[in-house]
Amino acid sequence: MTTASVDGRIDLPRRSGDRPRTRAHNPHQQLNQLAPPDLQETLWSRMTTLNGVLLGRSGVSLPDTRALHLRPTIAKGPGEAYLVGTEFAHLHGYDDGSLHMCLPKDIAAEAITQGWAELHPMARQRFLPQTLVMVYGPRDLDELEMVWRLVRISHGFARGAATA
């Protein structure tokens, strides 16, 4: 389990290197530093084990995107914990490997500051909540652990849990 500190931070380490290039408009995609397909599959396998998730297509992304929807009976998070309906995170296709997810505002800000994420363009323009971020695809096993940690926090946020 991951628990945020008293000030809402989770003490993410700094992501190494430069931020990847991303598309500044929809579809919001990662353009370089792509996650290898085997790491994407490892991450997806983990994502499918989260309690109360329904797997399916995204309600807001490209057709090759795999999404996590929370069962409505346990979707107790605030409205800004979801992309659409009870979809709280999705993994883009192999030619991208990044994820969109909703994170609590303080954790989203920390993930952005530490180089793991960026606001969705529509969130930057304040059309969508500041909780909606793109988390960059993991380039190695250490990054996989950090991204998996953020996915679990997103899942907890969608459930309305204090911990993930």
Overall pLDDT: 92
Low-confidence stretches: none
Reading side by side through the largest sheet, how are the strands ordered?
A: 1-2-3-4-6-5
> N-to-C terminal Cα separation, in Å?
6 Å
What is the tally of beta strands?
6
Structural class: alpha+beta
Helix and strand pattern: HEEEEHEHEH
Beta-strand portion reads 15-25%
Helix coverage percent of residues?
A: 25-40%
How would you sum up the global shape?
globular
Helix run count? 4
Rg, alpha carbons: 14 Å
Question: How is the main sheet built?
Answer: 6 strands, antiparallel
Protein name: DUF5519 family protein
Organism: Nocardia vinacea
InterPro entries: Luciferase, Luciferase_dom
Pfam family, one: Luciferase
What report would you give on this structure?
This is DUF5519 family protein. Residues 1-36 are annotated as: Disordered. By secondary structure, the protein is of the alpha+beta class. It is 26% helix and 16% strand. The protein is built from four helices and six strands, in the order H-E-E-E-E-H-E-H-E-H. The chain has a six-stranded antiparallel β-sheet with strand order 1-2-3-4-6-5. Strand 1 and strand 2 (66-70) form a beta hairpin. Helix 1 runs parallel beside helix 4.
